[in-house]
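Give me the fold.
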Amino acid sequence: MDGPPVNDFCSICHGHFNIACQANCSHWFCGDCIMLVWHHGSVLQPCKCPLCRRQITLLVPGEASLRERSDPDAAEVLRKIERYNHLFAGNTSGLIQRMQDLPFLLRRLLREIMDPQRSLPLVIRARVYISVVLSAIYIISPVDLIPEGILGIVGLLDDLLVVLICFLHVAAIYRAVLYYRHGGS
């Protein structure tokens, strides 16, 4: 989504979104509101989502928010978000955090790949396509680490593992793109 759902409100201030940002848990907040939540807690660690209590390690401003950069107040909030992302988005997180972020990142990536107006670099697109194609070739091929013919349904585990690794790899690539767009150096 390029912005929060229509007729939705910030769950922190209960008002219309001002510099809307989407967290890696998929919830939307006003940029200034989520920065206040972060500053209210420890500024040395990422804040937790006020709705689901997951750690927020990446904030992605909506498209409309990015167009407001000329407004000094909006520019200041966007600088704070970039600083937040610089501090926390580049950190490698554990497998559980990566699994939780997977739906958020894959949905955003799919929308970005399907939208011809987006500027996803060709190198990134190529890496995503190559990962997906190589995974599909492995799954379709008769060569398996755990053969289905001998072990039945248990033999599908290696195929599921390859799909999971592919999705995690693709999500990591896209997370790096979002990090460099919204806070990386």
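The two ends are 25 Å apart (CA to CA).
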